[in-house]
Design goal:
mainly beta
């Protein structure tokens, strides 16, 4: 009924939503509500286990509200790739609408980043001092190491036909 990767993502998501550990407010950036109240730009950098860069994805997210993200469909969603310097394709360019949760909870990409049977799954650990979150993951069964991300800008690009919404 459920694929194992989807079930794993659901379990991780439920764990994050019900966790009693305090959330690190350093991870909750506040958008400029006059310029982009529902959108934020993220740069996702992939590094291998030796911290060598594998490339990055520049993505934009749209949220239903400016409140802090929550688990599931109330979280950050409508993710679109603006730049991709990686030498492999996640297939997300053709699937811009799916769910991502807050950085202190989980990111459920298993149900959406599925391209040629390549599933991106991972366990998040938060680094409140830097505002980064990281997780180890596997792409098509190949462990490509650590994934780090942080918000790099709340500003809407001046000219971007690809910007959603």
């Amino acid at each position: 009924m459920f694929r194992p990767s989807t079930l794993l993502a659901l379990i991780v998501c439920l764990y994050g939503c019900t966790s009693t550990e305090p959330r690190d407010q350093n991870l909750a950036a506040t958008p400029d509500t006059e310029t982009a109240p529902h959108q934020t730009l993220w740069r996702f950098e992939f590094v291998d286990t030796d911290q060598e860069s594998l490339g990055y994805l520049l993505m934009v997210f749209t949220n239903d509200s400016v409140d802090e993200p929550t688990c599931g469909n109330d979280g950050w969603k409508n993710m679109m790739v603006l730049e991709n310097s990686l030498d492999f394709d996640f297939g997300v360019e053709s699937r811009p609408a799916y769910t991502i949760s807050g950085p202190w909870l989980t990111i459920d990409l298993t149900a959406s980043v599925c391209y040629l049977d390549h599933n991106l799954i991972g366990d998040i650990t938060a680094d409140g001092a830097s505002g980064f979150f990281t997780f180890s993951h596997k792409l098509g069964g190949y462990n490509i190491g650590r994934f780090t991300a942080r918000p790099v800008s709340w500003a809407r690009p001046a000219e971007s036909a690809d910007w959603p919404g």
